[in-house]
Design the sequence.
């Protein structure tokens, strides 16, 4: 065919060239550069239907994939292999036809819904778990057990408290509000355990954390935990402190008891786990010891009053973050 031009009839070899082709994928037009031929007399161009290296349809599909962030065949295969599932098993779990997945892995463009499902399988381990529990029973008992076990581990990693914390609140930066330290949840939890060894109320737990961190900043130029503190009416409190307490209750590291004082009901927290003090440096241990000894005999309202004398509290606006720069003028410890 390429020894003459079908358009003008020129009997000569057509020249190889790149041609622009408009190719429709799911109703969208993509401009693709493809291999072709051109007649040097009438300049009519023809696509090279035999070219395997750059199939314009494959290129257009590729463009569609990246425009709509569709998974590519290799990614689809990898999701399946990560769970050691056969094409038939995964198709079955998802309730798809037997050959659907095999086609996708060979290059067919998935439907929008299927692409969405595959992507959520890749990112969220609990999605496959739900299919295994609710979908058709297509796995052998032994295989099902093995995958469920592996998924449980993955789910735990994905939804670990550090992960959830970072997603919900963002990670703190090393600045004057975090005491130039990164948030260390392990240290936060162990300080709370130390504070609650003999039972403690929220107000005092918060003041203790404030004094641990600010005293350490005063003595050792960084906070212990990396926590940020805000000014609330009853004194300085760690940002999102209720989140820490709720998580420790959840994990069984703390228990809570309601204590009545006439009309007022207080929440008293007790440590259930032993604090691990080996995670603190010698200098930090010294600060912790000093603060615990100094505050031992004070109750909530007394320690609240003491914190109200601190410049850190006086000179910070209501609900604003407290700068660790005030630590050098700490009065109480
Ligand atoms: Zn021609």
Sequence:
């Amino acid at each position: 065919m390429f020894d003459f031009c079908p358009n003008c009839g020129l009997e000569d070899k057509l020249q190889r060239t790149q041609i622009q082709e408009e190719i429709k994928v799911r109703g969208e037009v993509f401009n693709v550069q493809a291999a072709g031929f051109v007649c040097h007399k009438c300049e009519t161009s023809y696509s090279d239907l035999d070219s395997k290296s750059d199939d314009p349809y494959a290129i257009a599909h590729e463009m569609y994939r990246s425009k709509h962030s569709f998974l590519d065949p290799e990614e689809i295969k990898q999701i399946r292999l990560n769970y050691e599932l056969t094409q038939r098993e995964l198709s079955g779990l998802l309730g798809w036809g037997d050959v659907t997945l095999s086609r996708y892995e060979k290059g067919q463009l998935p439907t929008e819904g299927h692409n969405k499902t595959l992507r959520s399988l890749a990112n969220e381990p609990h999605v496959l778990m739900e299919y295994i529990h609710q979908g058709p029973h297509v796995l052998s008992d032994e295989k099902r057990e093995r995958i469920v076990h592996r998924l449980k581990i993955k789910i735990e990693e994905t939804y670990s408290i550090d992960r959830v914390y970072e997603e919900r609140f963002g990670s703190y930066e090393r600045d004057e509000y975090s005491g130039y330290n990164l948030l260390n949840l392990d240290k936060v939890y162990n300080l709370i355990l130390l504070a609650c060894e003999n039972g403690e109320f929220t107000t005092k737990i918060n003041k203790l954390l404030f004094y641990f961190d600010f005293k350490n900043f005063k003595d050792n130029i960084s906070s212990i935990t990396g926590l940020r503190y805000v000014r609330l009416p009853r004194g300085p409190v760690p940002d999102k402190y209720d989140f820490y307490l709720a998580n420790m209750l959840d994990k069984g590291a703390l228990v809570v008891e309601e204590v009545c004082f006439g009309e007022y009901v207080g929440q008293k927290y007790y440590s259930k786990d032993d604090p691990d003090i080996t995670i603190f440096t010698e200098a930090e241990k010294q600060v912790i010891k000093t603060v615990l000894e100094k505050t031992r005999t004070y109750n909530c309202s007394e320690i609240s009053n003491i914190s109200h004398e601190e410049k850190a509290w006086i000179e910070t606006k209501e609900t604003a973050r407290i700068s660790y720069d005030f630590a050098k003028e700490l009065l109480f410890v």
